[in-house]
Amino acid sequence: MSATPPSAGERRRAERRAKRRPQQPEESWFGALGVNDDTPLGEEGGLDEPESRYEAGLAAASGAAPDSRFLSRQARRIVSSGQTAFDRIYRVFLGARAALGIALILTVVLAGVFGGRATLPVALVSVLYAALAIGMWLLPRFNRAVRPQELARLRGPQWLATIGTDIVCFTGLHLLSPSSTFNYVALLVLPVLMAGVLTPRRQALATAAGVAVALLGSAWLAVMGGGEATTLMTQAGLAGSGLFVITVLAGELAGRLAREELTAKGSLELARQQAQLNRLVIEEMQDGVLVVDRRGRVRAANPAARRLLAPSGMCRPAPFQLRGVEAWSGLVKTVERAFVEAVWPESGRDVVVEFDPGETRTLRVRIRFTRRLESQASEEFCVLLLEDVRNMQARTRQEKLAAMGRVSAGIAHEIRNPLAAIAQANALLAEDATTASQRQLTQMVTDNVERLKRIVDDVMEVAPGTVVEAGVIDAGEQVAAACKGWAQGAGVTLDERSAVQVELPAESLGALFDPDHLRRVLINLLDNGYRHSSKAPGSVRVRLSAPDESTVRLCVASDGPPIPPDVERYLFEPFFSTRSRGTGLGLYICRELCERYGASIDYRLRTPGDPTRNEFNVVMRRQALLQTEAPHVS
Question: What was the pLDDT predicted at 31?
């Protein structure tokens, strides 16, 4: 059977409904944590549903914490309304009183239209009550938020203007129209119900007792006027008993509502705290986290993931589309494959992200799935856990190096004693050497003994377990002194036409480091940079700067040939050297010394247009100096 096409009227009604209900922009899940402003998708990335599950603007409009967007829609509406249950019910009662006032006036008017006639006192009471009730409902002065304490006092202005006025007016109408066909006794349910819901139980029971006494008094007056005592007093007693029952039931329901509201507020607070903890954990994770749907849209991305998806810096905040970016094509195929297979290896799979020719990044991708509530057979989202394979390999190497370092330190310590004996014996032989060949042999032994001593000293320098205390140094002054000492030893003159150019800031920069260790790091970097440079003016540049208030950056760049990728991965490993007589401990010692003081050292290749492409960066922790002195290079 084919579906009947909608009529023109139905289409117009659908268009009007669509205009009244604006589309909510899609929103990042981590944006709900308050990390960054969310970036809405355009037309291509819009939602198919008429309303987003994560509505934007609710928390912002109410001033509530953004974490409330993790809660249910009903809970967010309660939070964003800015009203308590007491305030909402109080306003409902005000509206009911205004409607009842209008109904009383209409009753008087209709009675006159259909031949009946209300007495003048009844009409006056009805009009006065309607004016008071409508005024309290409409005027801002009276239509304000009311605290429960204001209605808890029987002689308070709020109680007298609402519950007290209702009792007086409705009792007066009942007394002024004893022979009328209208039964005004039923109206007394409103003040009794209002008292049972909005006031404490003692005051509510007192209100019900007052109304019951008024009904009994009215019945006694009717009996005095010739009425039947049994019937009138029984009716008044039954009405009073019913009002007591209404009071008790209303009080119980109001108490339950209050308890549920307190429980909801506690749950909201716990949910916010849990969301804040989730934010701290997810945002500080070293692994990248992506939440991707079936259409390839990234619904969430933490900073680590955004760094992995960009060649430098970070990519745009979520949400964004994975498709359409050539570098992410391998990741898109991985997501599509995961949704098709619905399973993924526990250890993950490697995916290559190629930004530019020759510039690739291998990511270890682990995938977990979140199942839709309305369909247990299909997967709606997948969570990608990304990790740079180079970092994984570096951690593995670091663990191996730590173990090897402990072994090497022990071996180096044991080598010192026989090495000292060899040096002493060689010195005795050198005294008895008479021929040129004998002196040449003893000199060879001396040179290699000194070389072994340097290796042992280097190994002992970075032996694990060494405790150091970082002090605040004037980084500019120490860099200037180290460059000057290195230049004198290498026979290089530091001037405008020198191969080594030093750029230091005018102000002093305090850093946490040891002066001797900083000098050793800088001299090692200068030796490597100068050795592989062209020796042309400015072929090696030393630059000291402060990128921000917490770090000091020392940069040593040279114009030598770029380091091959297969060599770059082993730069900071011990005993790896491209020279035949190199120990391979220079950069390894530099890294170990930097890590002692909370600093870091890394290598990066600058853009092809930069003459000094090979760049080593040492990032130190910045701290204010007690005495500042502008450094200079002479």
Answer: 43
Considering only residues 114 and 430, tell me which one the structure prediction assigns the higher pLDDT: 430
pLDDT at residue number 556: 92
Instruction: Round to whole Å and give the CA distance between 319 and 301.
Output: 8
Cα separation, 481 vs 478, in Å, equals 5
* Order of strands across the sheet that contains 379-388: 320-321, 297-301, 288-293, 379-388, 359-371, 349-356
According to the model, what pLDDT value does residue 374 have? Answer: 46
* Segment holding 301, helix H or strand E: strand 297-301
User: Higher pLDDT residue, 573 or 387?
Assistant: 387
- Taking CA atoms, 619 is separated from 137, 231, 474, in Å, by 67, 97, 15
The sheet carrying 500-503 orders its strands as 500-503, 540-545, 551-558, 614-621, 600-605
If phi > 0 it is left, if psi is from -120 to 50 it is alpha, else beta; for residue 69 that is: alpha
DSSP, residue by residue, 66-94: GGGGGS-HHHHHHHHH---HHHHHHHHHH
Length of the chain: 634
List of residues 6+ apart from 261 with CB closer than 8 A: 84, 85
Single-letter amino acid code for the residue at 214: A
Element (H, E) at 203: helix 201-224
Predicted local distance difference test score (pLDDT) of residue 552: 92
C-beta of residue 534 within 8 angstroms of C-beta of residue 565: no
Shortest CA distance to 32 belongs to which of 1, 56, 9? Answer: 56
| Distance (Å, whole) CA 177 – CA 119 | 8
Report the run of H or E that residue 552 belongs to, with start and end. Answer: strand 551-558
Residue with tokens 């290699």: 448
Question: What is the arithmetic mean of pLDDT over 581-596?
Answer: 76
Please determine, for residue 634, whether its predicted confidence score (pLDDT) is greater than 50: no
Beta bridge pairs of residue 353: 361
Task: Count Cβ neighbours within 10 Å for each residue of 353-380 and write b for 16 or more, e otherwise.
Answer: bbbeeeeebbbbbbbeeeeeeeeeeebe
Whole-structure pTM value: 0.42
Q: How big, in percent rounded to 5, are the helix, strand and coil portions of the chain?
A: 55, 15, 35
**For the chain, what is the mean pLDDT?**
76
The three state secondary structure string of 344-411 is CCCCCEEEEEEEECCEEEEEEEEEEEEECCCCCCCEEEEEEEEEEHHHHHHHHHHHHHHHHHHHHHHH
Residue whose entry in the numeric block shows the structure tokens 């990248």: 288
What is the reported pLDDT for 70?
40
Helix (H) or strand (E) holding 488: helix 475-490
**C-alpha of 137 from chain center:** 43
What token pair was written down for 142?
A: 């009276």
Cα 236–240–245 angle (5° rounding)?
150
Residue 277 has pLDDT above 90, yes or no: no
Secondary structure of 377-390 as H, E, C letters: CCEEEEEEEEEEHH
Rounded CA gap, 391 and 268, in Å?
39
Which range (73-87, 104-118, 414-428, 442-456) has the least confidence? 73-87
357 φ, ψ to 5°? -55, 120
Name the one residue in this structure whose structure tokens are 């409904």. Answer: 17
Instruction: Give bridge partners of residue 91 from the DSSP assignment.
Output: none
Q: Where are the alpha helices (DSSP H) in 143-188?
A: 148-152, 157-159, 165-176
